[in-house]
Specification:
Blueprint lengths: L1 H4 L3 H22 L6 H10 L5 E3 L4 H10 L8 E3 L12 H10 L8
Parallel strand pairs: 1-2
Length: 109
């Protein structure tokens, strides 16, 4: 998403690399898991629930967060801000998850 707002591709790559490095390095200072959420998600997955996640974060930021929070390989569908043309609160991300990725029929958004 940052790349969309910087005019020079090389500057965007450098800025993004620096941002992701700092984000990974300082993640635990700013992001904490929600109490028993991890256990709930594990239990839901164990019982056969299909789990989907959407975040406005970019794909790499999402990967960093999932890894740091111990949530990698938990979600059947992960949609980041990089994966949609229209950011929140536009319904595109939910439509993508429900219609295309989880193959849920009859969804009206």
């Amino acid at each position: 998403m940052l790349q969309r707002h910087l005019a020079h591709p090389e500057e965007a790559r450098d800025a993004l690399a620096r941002y992701h490095g700092l984000y990974a390095e300082n993640h635990q200072q700013y992001v904490e898991p929600f109490g028993e959420l991890h256990d709930l998600l594990i239990e839901m997955k164990r019982t056969g629930c299909r789990l989907a996640l959407f975040t406005g974060k970019g794909r790499q930021g999402l990967a960093i967060s999932l890894e740091r929070l111990g949530l990698t390989r938990l979600f059947d569908v992960e949609i980041s801000g990089d994966d949609v043309a229209h950011p929140k609160p536009h319904p595109e991300e939910l439509q993508t998850i429900m219609k295309q990725r989880l193959a849920v029929a009859g969804i009206v958004c």
